[in-house]
Specification:
single chain, 107 residues, alpha/beta, Metallo-beta-lactamase, Chain A, five-stranded mixed sheet
Length: 107
């Protein structure tokens, strides 16, 4: 098993981990960066993985620093399952539409 720390390193926002093992690749969280303009600028960086290779995503909870870039994943083509609790799903259905426009790529 290989775990790549893609966010929430040297900062407390942007939670995002890629796990590879047993022929599968999955994400744990896909959070938005918050704080300084430099940190928030990271929300517009290219993902460090090929979205088409991700089999599923585990979302730990609804906080925006764990879920806020899910709309961007979707805009860029992700259509595989997001596994979470019902409470997290319910909260995200309210929160994530607001983060969608912010988390899009600036081009």
């Amino acid at each position: 098993m290989k775990i790549t720390f893609l966010g929430a390193t040297k900062t407390v926002t942007g939670s995002n981990f890629l796990v590879e093992g047993a022929g599968k690749k999955f994400l744990i969280d896909c959070g938005m960066y918050q704080g300084s303009s430099k940190e928030e600028g990271r929300n517009h960086e290219t993902f460090a993985f090929d979205i088409k290779e991700i089999d599923f995503m585990l979302l730990t909870h609804a906080h925006i620093d764990h879920s806020g870039r899910i709309p961007r994943l979707y805009v860029e083509g992700y259509r595989n399952p997001v596994i979470t609790t019902k409470a997290t799903k319910d909260l995200c259905s309210i929160m994530l539409p607001d983060s969608r426009s912010y988390s899009r790529t600036r081009n």
